[in-house]
Amino acid sequence: MALSDTAAQQRLRDAGLRVTVQRTRVLEALAERPHASADLVFTGIRDTLPGIALATVHGILNDLTDAAVVQRVNLPDVGSALYELRSDDNHHHLQCVSCGRVEDVACAVGAAPCLHPSHDHGMRILEAAVTYRALCHECERNGNG
């Protein structure tokens, strides 16, 4: 999914963020590679922005997450957070236990997992996450699982 400069800049403006080349490139990188780590985003943009530092990418991703422009995704067995542009809905993730591939899954249907705890112990629930752990067709075909 490509994201034009204009669309990326509009997302930043809509979130009340200052439009910069670095922020625009980070959004474009996430459009090209959803569920990317900060390291992967950095690798994807450093050739077009040779002066950018990994710490800057981390800062931009934090700012974009705080502004709800991107969503931070923490998955089992993944050493660092992943980021995606899809932040305005309640979707889940499907993760291959062999190769680590991550795909979006719409809300659970049928006998949905428990997303509302039986007791909140006086805490305000901020989020609930469901991760389906699976074996992708490619890994299963190659005997990796």
From TrEMBL:
Localization, UniProt: Cytoplasm
Keyword line: Cytoplasm, DNA-binding, Iron, Metal-binding, Repressor, Transcription, Transcription regulation, Zinc
Pfam families: FUR (PF01475)
InterPro entries: FUR, Fur_C, WH-like_DNA-bd_sf, WH_DNA-bd_sf
Family: Belongs to the Fur family.
PANTHER family registered for this protein in UniProt: TRANSCRIPTIONAL REGULATOR FURA, ZINC UPTAKE REGULATION PROTEIN
Name of this protein: Transcriptional repressor
Native source organism of the sequence: Microbacterium commune
